[in-house]
Amino acid sequence: PRPVILDGDPGHDDAINILLALASPELQVLGITTVFGNVGLERTTRNALITRELIGADVPIFAGADRPLVVPRISAEAVHGKSGMDGPELPTPTRGAEAMHAAHFIIEQVRARPGEVTLVPTGPLTNLALAFRLAPDIVPLLREVVWMGGSTDTGNWTPAAEFNALADPHAAHVVFTSGVPLTMFGLNVTHQAIAHPARVAAFRALGTRVGEFAAVLLEFFAEHHRERYGWEGGALHDPMTVAWLLRPDLFVSRPMHVTLDLTAGPSVGRTVADVWDVTGQPKNVRVATAVDADGFFALLVERLGRYS
Ligand code: BDR
Ligand code: CA
């Protein structure tokens, strides 16, 4: 199996990504690292712990950055609720996170497995940026980074910027300019996979605790998307990262030159993607542009259905 580290800010869609990865024998999840984002670090870590206990998994969890590198912290309670994972009942976790900082865990694992580890961030890129700055030697030792964030077109937190990019644009800049093989699942592709009621029903029809948990998460997640966009459900952003590792055939992608807008102003945090190669600059990012949404949801339901 392929060794991966899941780094995120659970988060409804981050939690479903964790469930997808841990159900998949093609992957060896070395650890889960958490970062501030949708809500504060304490809550995102707690939500990761709760998700792990839901399925009785043994994977270690490491808390990381509690704030961005430079800009003030933002959060997304409006989308994910006060807990960051509102909807299902959230029990008090019985086991805590490990003592090591997420960035140190990433460094340790990458050094131990040169050329093998894939990082799968689904939140602000702060933990990766910290690791890359603390230990630049790990950058060429990584197999790749597969991130949910950014967009080739419009944003969702400002007209120009997607949440994960805006939450720490400088960290994203560090990763985008590092030279690491990077695949980006931005809003331009995640908005193609809406968890509308028939898709939610397929999770519920599993008739399991995990199926019900996913369905309730998606129902809560739908509320914001209904109000803001007039859609029938939420865009299931984060699980596209792990889905890509399992089934790249479900996606279309293309290498592009992408830069982060760091200038203070209305476009800060924008991932400026050279879709038509007008600059001729080196293509530093593989950008996902299309998804087979039915195939994506079928994969999710099949994998989450593996939990009894
Ligand atoms: C991203 O922001 C978060 O709210 C989601 O978990 C996802 O990672 C979408 O912009
Ligand atoms: Ca997320």
UniProtKB/TrEMBL annotation:
One of its GO terms (cellular component) is cytosol. Residues 4-297 form the Inosine/uridine-preferring nucleoside hydrolase domain. GO terms for molecular function: purine nucleosidase activity. It is an enzyme of class 3 (hydrolase). SUPFAM superfamilies: Nucleoside hydrolase. Its EC number is 3.2.2.1. InterPro entries: Inosine/uridine_hydrolase_dom (IPR001910), IUNH (IPR023186), Ribo_hydro-like (IPR036452). Keywords: Glycosidase, Hydrolase. Pfam families: IU_nuc_hydro. CDD domains: nuc_hydro_IU_UC_XIUA (cd02651). This is Purine nucleosidase.
